[in-house]
Amino acid sequence: MTEKLSEWMLRAFSGLRMARYVHAAHGNTVVAGRLYWWNVEASAALYGSLHCLELALRNALHHQLSLAYGRADWWAKAPLNPNGQRLVAKARSKCVRRGLVPTADDIVAELSFGFWASLVSGGSGYDRLFWVPVLHKAFPHYSGRRDTLYDGLWSLVLLRNRIMHHEPIHHRDLNADHAKIYRVLGYLDPRLAKEAQAMDRFPAVRANKGFVLAGLEPPRF
């Protein structure tokens, strides 16, 4: 299925990986190669807005929990579930392995997007423990249901992870994903959403997909 792809591409990216693009291109190996590069281009174009979302979410939740528990290392008092405790311990261990005596800021920086999004879940009573008394304040421009917000956040965690692990995203409804990023950013801070959107090149990349696959425009990243 992948025998007509360039030998260097198969060697660099693996036949198994490229086979997925050949399948998506209905066996056309020329289009498959272009689709691979467009997938890299689209992933790169989404990185900036996801960067803004992950950092803004992390800092907003951390700020509210620090206020609520009266300390920067709020996880020492907060009723995290076993998985949350494990992730905090893992973040601390990473800091120690780098030779740090970890501060709260060090640990916050090591905690993943998935960890922060999980705090908005209903798991282990998080809706009553965190959302109702504290974390709804991190989203001053949101008035909907917690579970709806969590579902949106978790889908963006999965998108972010696919991008960071160099997986295909071309098959997703990327226009919907992109709109969701800015919706959640707007819940956190509309000024940030507006500033980020002004620099965002993803709409142009998405509009150019057909031209790239047809060989009329080169992909760029």
In short:
This is Abi family protein. With 221 residues, the protein is mainly alpha-helical.
The counted number of beta strands is 0
Individual helix count: 12
Radius of gyration: 20 Å
Structural class: mainly alpha
- Give the mean pLDDT: 96
Biggest sheet: strands, sense, closure? none
Count of distinct structural domains: 1
Range of strand content:
under 5%
Helix fraction bin? 55-70%
> Quick one: overall form?
elongated
N-to-C SSE string, H for helix and E for strand: HHHHHHHHHHHH
**Residue ranges: pLDDT <50 for 5 or more in a row?**
none
Terminal CA distance reads: 27 Å
Organism: Streptomyces spongiae
Protein name: Abi family protein
Q: Main traits of this protein?
A:
single chain, 221 residues, mainly alpha, Abi family protein
Write the layout of secondary structure elements.
Layout: H1 7-13, H2 15-24, H3 29-69, H4 82-97, H5 104-110, H6 113-118, H7 126-131, H8 146-164, H9 174-188, H10 190-199, H11 202-207, H12 209-213
Helix pairs in contact: 1-2, 2-3, 3-8, 3-9, 4-5, 8-9, 9-10
